[in-house]
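Render this sequence as a predicted structure.
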Amino acid sequence: MNQQLSQLLQECLEKGSKEDLETLTYAIEGIHQKVIGKKRTYLEGLAHMERKLDQKSCEISIPLHSLFENSLGILHGGITATILDTAMGVLANYLLPNGFSSVTNQLNIHYIAPGVGDFLRCRAELIHQGKNTLIISGEAYRSDGKRIAHATGTLFIIKNKESGGK
């Protein structure tokens, strides 16, 4: 494994453009944050996520980087969806009692404007918490404050496996 990784990195270093190498550095720095325990997941590290969380909302921000651009040079809509879904899930899991978690059942997103600028900020708020589901809304904003997407999500409440769930 180490030899294969070394060969891949060496080829990237030899053949990569300046942008390729900057993107590789950005990605490795993010993965490193997970490896050393500063981020909980590879996604959180790779996206360089920062979050704020309280009883009413969750806000996740990521710097915009070419790693997340589509072929038009703007933020890929799937990245916007992923960060919105993450903010909604983090809030849901924070609100649930010990022994329970949530998983996304449905996610509806309305894209409003292109994702450009320095960063993306997604904010999630609880709409309804029932016995088996939560409904959460989310908004995504770019660095100039313009809203680029509106989302709603339904999340199933599940028992954690270590708590006797299936």
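Summary. Residues 1-46 form one domain. The chain has two domains: 1-46, 50-163.
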